[in-house]
């Protein structure tokens, strides 16, 4: 088998990322040399490759589905929104510029060349490249400058399948409408559809599939059932709305309750997926001070807009609630931007241009934003455990090594020196680090949670054998199983090998 395929979707969060990962896993298990690709990704969940390039985290997981180390070519263009109108543009793993929507348009020709060259390099190295689209291919206002969906498909002559989320409702209308809004040349590359997240009686769905085939002249390549318990690394916070709810029985003393503050520009919230994998740990995303009351651990996660999100934290009353927790000696963890918020001061002349800003003052540290972004894969030790992680930040944190006055109740009276914690520090029940992914290290995660439980006064004891990497592999295998069992893999293989069939029907616009 040799070729390529573009997995598009009727909407954001339709399931493009997981379908792409599933096809990659299915092919890899057949011995096919396969790689993932996403030309342009807008996401605040990113990852650092072994050579220090920043790419979307979804592509890193898709690379794992292929049994590969991720590379910058797998996601050559990454957009990281800092506000509703401006984004940082990361090209081949390195920040290139901060632009607004109109300025970005001027870069499109250059970026299209970058994307096509990356895809060409992957196609020269692998038998099959499974490409993921972005948003919907029917964003007709954006089609002239498109480099992620039909623009890429045209440039590389890729056959396209369109994924629709039936759980949202209106899947037939969205699939038909997506096709009908494309021009004739684009429609000629759309080979068919995949229904995602189906639950119910298949026999009730089948007449609709037959009508869709008749109306469009295209195949339905599969109906993927809803799979409980599947939670893969996702691209943006939109998916948090569909995250499996926390278990209702969260009041026992053997349960550890974790509240993650859902910041407006939350980034790398996948850091807490490993916590949710632990038996007895309940993870919730929260947006109000009242939701912190029963939490045993509060996490301030990463942020693409630290100063702005800190202001939001204050406006909602969450900042006061977090400070009150510290005074009472209740556990708090800050990761990257969240760690920066816990410091005494933040000087930001780079990201927000706000200058000197007062932090929450819960850790004896100061932050200064640098123009050069730190991108690395550090290795260290904490609780006697080896920890490997990754860093993505402009803000550099400096910890005051001298004894310092503290508000933290369990840190003792008077002054106390902060203790080292990974690359950051700890003062009583408050921990801070810039390292993402640290909690994926099993031994470290268990030791940290055991310490949190002691500070929180809970009877929780981590399970001794939970392996997050094994859980992720099992989830990837489950996706591969979905493709193998519920898609027409023979037709899919022919599509990859031969491209879109000739003579596909063209629907008149607005038909």
TrEMBL record:
Keyword Phosphoprotein: no
Protein role: Catalyzes amidations at positions B, D, E, and G on adenosylcobyrinic A,C-diamide. NH(2) groups are provided by glutamine, and one molecule of ATP is hydrogenolyzed for each amidation.
Pfam families the UniProt entry points to: CbiA (PF01656), GATase_3 (PF07685)
Active site: 336 (nucleophile), 436
Gene that this sequence comes from: cobQ
InterPro entries attached to this UniProt entry: Class_I_gatase-like, CobQ/CobB/MinD/ParA_Nub-bd_dom, CobQ_GATase1, CobQ_N, CobQ_synth, GATase_3, P-loop_NTPase
Alphabetically ordered keywords of this record: Cobalamin biosynthesis, Glutamine amidotransferase
GTP-binding keyword on record: no
Protein name: Cobyric acid synthase
